[in-house]
Amino acid sequence: MVTCTGPVNIAVIKYWGKRDEDLILPINSSLSVTLHQDQLKTTTTIACSRNFQQDRIWLNGKEEDISNPRLQSCLQEIRRFARKRRNTGGSTSDVSSVSHKVHICSVNNFPTAAGLASSASGYACLVYTLSQLFGVESEQLSAVARQGSGSACRSLYGGFVQWKLGERSDGKDSLAEQVGSESHWPELRVLVLVVSAEQKSVGSTSGMHTSVGTSQLLKYRADVVVPSRMEEMIRVIRQRDFPAFGELTMKDSNQFHAICLDTYPPIFYLNNISHRIISLVHRYNQYYGETRVAYTFDAGPNAVIYTLEDHLPEFVQVVRHFFPPEVNGAEFVKGLPVCSTELSEDLKRNINMEPTPKGIHYIISTKAGPGPCVVKDPNHHLLGADGLPKKSAISD
Amino acid sequence: MVTCTGPVNIAVIKYWGKRDEDLILPINSSLSVTLHQDQLKTTTTIACSRNFQQDRIWLNGKEEDISNPRLQSCLQEIRRFARKRRNTGGSTSDVSSVSHKVHICSVNNFPTAAGLASSASGYACLVYTLSQLFGVESEQLSAVARQGSGSACRSLYGGFVQWKLGERSDGKDSLAEQVGSESHWPELRVLVLVVSAEQKSVGSTSGMHTSVGTSQLLKYRADVVVPSRMEEMIRVIRQRDFPAFGELTMKDSNQFHAICLDTYPPIFYLNNISHRIISLVHRYNQYYGETRVAYTFDAGPNAVIYTLEDHLPEFVQVVRHFFPPEVNGAEFVKGLPVCSTELSEDLKRNINMEPTPKGIHYIISTKAGPGPCVVKDPNHHLLGADGLPKKSAISD
């Protein structure tokens, strides 16, 4: 039995559109920041035993259908790797385990309402835990996670991670690769602004499928715009150039949502609160005459903010001022502590926006973090000795 | 003294972006439907007299600065044409008038709150009235109106009008041209859904300037997407193929708003109500398995709906059902009468949307109409014998 944790990642160059739906091969490369697992993580325990009758999976305390094709892809691929290693004598672990059935138990420490795609951390953690269980070591692990959920491949590494689209039709070169470790840019900080969604949005799988089929602009984005943006993004991350990093991040988020609008029928992930957050960020940067804060939005209305630690307290106070919260203090800002500060009247006057009470539910304050980790303490296993979820795994 | 009226037009292939800011030359061709002046019009009276000391202009009852550069462009261009005709002996009217100062009085019969760009009908009517006053007849008139406001050139013709971008740097071939007259497609009907705007949007002049400077997708739209869409749009209008016309109209509206989002900082013209109207139209069409209704949005949240007269009563009732109005009957639906009808429970159930009370203020019901017209009845002059606005011109 092995337990591991896996991180969430937030793209700054967005993945949108597949060239192969089965292998989950993208039409463009993408790049993300892996978030710290102290704030946001998936924990997965996997046990295998000759006594298990079938593969089973429990997600957040509820048993789910193991026959899900993406889940099956990951299981099959890892078992294939494990058998290959066993046959070549390269495995260091119990070589018989690969033929046993597995029980998988996985929980997220963040609510679905946070609007953070749990499929990335979920599949990354699943694949990493399976690899530990079966003693598989491979640079191809991210290709396995990719077949669970595209962006999951990026969650196999910490820090700054690119997913190269690759050229091969079998997807073997469509892999994640670290661009900078989690300690590369220690001043970089991340805020997740959790917005109230009025209605359920179109899921990203069907959304990107429709975009590929209908958006004329998407092809140009993938073929022409993204390749040069990837190069620039890697350069500005290496240089820790926040203004350039922030501006490119915002532009790429906006272009992704533009593609959604150019889709037919159009897809809207941003709502009026998202628009106001965008407006607030631009007015804040405008006031200082430089990009101090950047937003990015995925397939939902929640904003993820990148900034540097020096500017964090003031910007959090700006958010608190223009989106007066329902709850205060630590209830509003969860995660890494943020010093309190006062806003100048001049700043408030220059931003010149009507406050939107309760527009933002709460903030999660975090930073870049490492890739998946093995949890040594057996007390943290989510499965009991009987191979069934512990009670604590249901309410965690 | 001459009085004329001029129409509003609503683009179905959008104009967004100039290649020459002074001459107002666009980066792509565009195409619009001229709306009927029984519902929406600008009325302009222009007098000239040796006794006037200077050119003066009154807009909606208020004197405005005549030195506005775009106004000056139009006045100078028309006077240049008039002098040319006088010198070549081609003018049929009083040839001395061209050296006199003019008094211009102009009113719109629609409130600014309707969100219909009044600059198109305003400049088209101004240029047409000046041409009547000075006896100028020219195919270049639309090039003069274009220098007041780009889309004004399309309001010089009735029915279906394209504005060809042209190739010359002096703009002489950047002209409007009729594709089909106002009687070409009598079943086509138009609804303006007036939505409450929460905040003032970015003006279209500065918006398109920023788009040209920052949107990577705009160049591709202008160079690659629009040329083929123009051809297709002209073809489907000639064939009166509503499903194809409607789908292309919606796609081009969405792409224009996608470009606004790809602009940096991004521009949002659509609000949550606009999103809901878009959603309602797609669900309505989905129910019937064909495109019966199409939306288009300009630089604001108001929707303009194209449909055929057979489907008009039901769709108006659908709007009334899902956007329960504050006022009823003729207060809610202004303009051309719309028969009342009942909705089937099946339709309502299938559309499956939460109603949004008061989301739409009112509807203007209209259709395609003719280009600018001369008003013969001197009682309709907006200027009195003294060359100053009549009292009625202020409150019209």
TrEMBL record, chains A, B:
Pathway terms, separated by semicolons: Steroid biosynthesis; cholesterol biosynthesis
Enzyme class, spelled out: lyase
Keyword Lyase: yes
Pfam families hit by this protein: MDD_C, MVD-like_N
UniProt keywords, alphabetically: ATP-binding, Cholesterol biosynthesis, Cholesterol metabolism, Lipid biosynthesis, Lipid metabolism, Lyase, Nucleotide-binding, Steroid biosynthesis, Steroid metabolism, Sterol biosynthesis, Sterol metabolism
EC annotation from Swiss-Prot or TrEMBL: 4.1.1.33
Diphosphomevalonate decarboxylase-like N-terminal domain mapped to chain residues: 7-176
Domain Mvd1 C-terminal residues, every copy: 190-375
Catalyzed reaction equations: (R)-5-diphosphomevalonate + ATP = isopentenyl diphosphate + ADP + phosphate + CO2
Function: Catalyzes the ATP dependent decarboxylation of (R)-5-diphosphomevalonate to form isopentenyl diphosphate (IPP). Functions in the mevalonate (MVA) pathway leading to isopentenyl diphosphate (IPP), a key precursor for the biosynthesis of isoprenoids and sterol synthesis.
Family the UniProt entry places it in: Belongs to the diphosphomevalonate decarboxylase family.
The protein's name in its UniProt record: Diphosphomevalonate decarboxylase
